[in-house]
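Reposting from the mailing list since nobody answered there.

I have sequence plus structure tokens for a pair of proteins and want to know whether others read the tokens the same way I do. The first protein:
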Amino acid sequence: RLPVRRGVSFWACQGTMGGSSGGFLTPKAIAKRIKSKGLQKLRWYCQMCEKQCRDENGFKCHLKSETHLRQMAIFGQNAEKFVEGYSKEFEKTFLQHFRTAHRTTRIAANVIYNEFIADRNHVHMNSTKWTTLTEFVVHLGRTGKCKVEETPKGWFLRLVAKDEDEQLRDKLKGKRKRAEEAEEVRHARFLRQQVERARAAATTGDGNTGVNGFSVVEEASELKRDGTEAPLGFELSKKKPPATLSGSAGRGDLGRDRAGSAANAFGVEAFSVAAEGSAKGGEGRGAARKKKSALEEIMQEQEALKKRKEKVQQEQQQPPPGGGGKGCWLFEGIVVKVVSKELKGAGFYKEKAAVRRVIDQGGRFLGELEHLKSGAILRVDQAQLETVIPKPGGKVLVLLGEHAGAQATLVGVDTKKFKAQVELAGNNGDEARLWMEYDDISKCAV
């Protein structure tokens, strides 16, 4: 006997679900789900709405629907952005599938593409900037992400695998390059602002903008006094003490008279200064009378010996004529190359200039340069300069070593050892040839 529940038979329930009104287990519903579960034709897929149509009629109906028209209105506002976004997403997911399924395998492009589109939720190619699979394969080969090979059997791909360390290095290299470019742009803008301010100041000041728009740097001169100017002096008349004065009382009266005359000549302040001087003199005489201990005498002798050694070292380290001193290799009259990237925006980067003057700023040495092409005057730190090696036969100046400051003739260069052979002229007319580093010599300006 058939089971009955709440007065309704089991077959009645089944008949109601599978009747003409439709149901979940009807053959038509099952066939519909089977068809929708599989992969449909890609040309009847709308990427903007993410809707798969089953046939051409359904696709036409979808194109006229309100939902699709609303999505196309949004697409029309910035079509290039949408196409580029879908293209990047398609390429990213395709390469991800390639790395997962065929990391080290050479495979046909059609095979891997069919594997990729088996996922019905993938980004379809008809929404990207590539109209055919061949265009996409050529793009992968051009960008270096895959090795592409065209054969009679079609296109074949092989993934170019990069290890994580190499990818990290490429990422850091790109980041560093962007930072350097931003730094160069910032320095160039700052330099342009300085040049504009200098031009404005020179124009508004005296109406002279200098050479080629650059303000001419005025050299500071030392304060000199003529020999005819005599030092200032005061002449004080001395009063002769009376002959009757003697003893301690006489000396006291004489001191008061002298102090009074000084006070009359200079005012009350003179008397106070004289009193302080006498007090200091008394303290000095008292200290001189104090006997020094043996330890103090030894310390005093060591201090004197130390001062003598420092004086000898200073005499030995005297800079050669024209140089800036210890730690300075610049000389007047040599040609140098500017390697400061801060001056790239002004057009002085990798340019040659002649050194007019060497400036010492407390251990930091600057060179006052004259640009050889434009004649502009600029000041650059010696750390941002390089020496210039002329052609064989040219005149050079020795910058460092025992021959610093001497002129020589360049004989030849050794590009492998980065050395140059120079010929020095001796005092007796003798000539000596020496090998020197590139940084030890530089071209003479004249």
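The second protein, same order (residues first, tokens after):
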Amino acid sequence: TIIDDTIITNLGDEVGLVINAGCKDKDIEHIKDHLEVAKKNGMDVDLKIVDDHELLALQGPKAMEVLSGMVDAKELDLVKMNFMTAQSANVMGIPCHVTRCGYTGEDGFEISVPGENTKEFFAGMLADERVRPAGLGPRDSLRLEAGLCLYGSDIDDTTTPVEANINFVVAKSRRESGGFLGDKIILSQIADKTLTDRKRCGLVITGAPARGGERVFDLDMNLVGTISSGTYSPTLLKPISMAYLNKPFNKVGTDVQVNVRGRMNKATVVKMPFVEARYYRAPE
């Protein structure tokens, strides 16, 4: 099952790990447990907790254009910087760690800023008229449109990556070699589709948006699943949701019903993402 979803970066002699704040305690406990085992096996490893930085995300189609005016291109060449790569650099003269990623489906950057410089950094960003502040509400709408899972809603410690339809997190080399936590269950589920009874899928809904926890029924009123998260899509101008549906009701094009505050709303299973992602690819 899934303990957390994290960003892991190869920093040379170190590995950088960004975890969800809500999972901090259990993540650190989990890492420490395995750290002790590694040390006993002779590995030279340790854990350093960095809690004096803040993480700000600059997202959207103009993110590169904005950030390029705040960095030295000789130090950080954004044109050559691919999606899911990272580098330390000065941003507006502040030493930061810049990762080309984000949870919106758009191009963008997550920037780790020293705590004492966060207000200055934030103000500097907002001084650019192309930048607007946005909280978790807009972020949640965008990540849902992009079909991205939210930990605690769409994935948690009761789901496997295969049930969640995120098999891409298991690289081809790992599928061949195994050797990771949970490999027996995960690799067997990838190899044999009959070992999973449910799958995460997308729904377009008629009527009011269906939120997490709402029940999904087939056309004969048999319970076939549960909504994990949902919203009104500002891009598509219609309600969208993600749900875990029993097979075979997870197939694209299947019509189902969702109980939204006591009213049965029609819904159809669709392919995700709801809105195509626009991640950046550097020119070759």
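Reply #1 (J.P.):
I read it the same way you do. The radius of gyration is 21 Å.
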